[in-house]
């Protein structure tokens, strides 16, 4: 049975936009008084509401009696929402002016979340993940990448990835799992950085593949995590093992984005410390530049150079980095809106960064645009003018969200 949903004051299908570089709002397709025909979770047609009524007379009608702006559901292509425990002590120390090292010495940092996540059972982790995914879904995020990386040994990395898989069965949102066993060398691993990465490749990834827990790897390239050299070899080998790759790159010091581009990673994420060199490399590559304003807000640091990346011609996506340490807020739209005011990003650039331009970071072929044949993942805002969405800086939330055509 087909359903006709509408009329909407405006539909922004996010179609026909350049995949890279600057975007002006005038380039957005805006369908005034539009409707959407949905069948079996897929979009059948999008057009003027009246013409759809004529063309599909037998449709079930889902009539919208208030002015709404319809968008594709957001894609959050970088999160760490599978974890247990809080890091509010880290945050209190940080806003009291303590340094990264002082916080780590007091037992904080990523290792603190590893300790807490290792203690948690798989059911708790799955429940935590479902709760956060559902909160995201209610705020219009219909596809969510979720990383492991707080286990850092065989048992606990698998526990996290299995919990993410379970969580995917209990939330309507689509979860895309990524193995981030290379988040840091675990403190209890007796061996070199290279040996740990080799262990991931030889012992962990084959099990992940066998159980179909994930087909993606991530690595944190930073002075406190893994070197560019070690990461290059790791990513090349992981790709040979048929894993797609993404990189935590240039967060505090530059170097990671270059590795991401040279190895052909799908995305380079963070980029707060990227210089002109990395900006040019990303712009001339097929690697998506993912900026994470939530981490800048959580750490009280500057934003990634999103304006410069777009001007240079990069494909820029915006993700939340929702995690217990650097980005506990987890509100993608607030973060994107606040960053856009500081970085001078157009509404078209910001909305594309969470839809059509985030899709390639996760290799999604049927999400991020409202197009016939695509999943009916959609969200509607209570306004007649799409510019209100950034104007209210993320405080205006969607009043309706559909996942595969079903209102959630
Ligand atoms: O993306 N940069 C490294 N990893 C995370 C932080 C995770 C944590 O602090 O627990 C990030 O910001
Ligand atoms: Fe992250």
How would you portray this structure in words?
The protein is of the alpha/beta class and 408 residues long. The protein folds into two domains: 110 residues, Urease, subunit C, domain 1; 288 residues, Metal-dependent hydrolases (TIM Barrel). 37% of the residues lie in helices and 21% in strands. It has 15 helices and 16 strands. The strands form two sheets. Strands 1, 2, 3, 4, 5, 14, 15 and 16 form an eight-stranded mixed sheet that branches. It is globular, with a radius of gyration of 21 Å. The mean pLDDT is 98. It binds N-(iminomethyl)-L-glutamic acid (NIG) and fe (iii) ion. The site of fe (iii) ion has 5 residues, from loops.
Mean pLDDT score = 98
Major sheet size, sense and barrel closure? 8 strands, mixed
Percent of residues in β-strands = 15-25%
- Total helical elements: 15
| Percent helix | 25-40%
**CATH third-level topology of the largest domain:** TIM Barrel
Overall geometric form: globular
Which structural category do the helix and sheet elements fall into? alpha/beta
Bound molecules: N-(iminomethyl)-L-glutamic acid, fe (iii) ion
The number of domains is: 2
- Unreliable stretches, pLDDT < 50, 5 or more residues? none
How many strands in all? 16
Q: Superfamily at the CATH H level of the largest domain?
A: Metal-dependent hydrolases
> What is the name of the CATH class of the largest domain?
Alpha Beta
How large is the radius of gyration? 21 Å
Give the end-to-end Cα distance, rounded to a whole number of Å. Answer: 19 Å
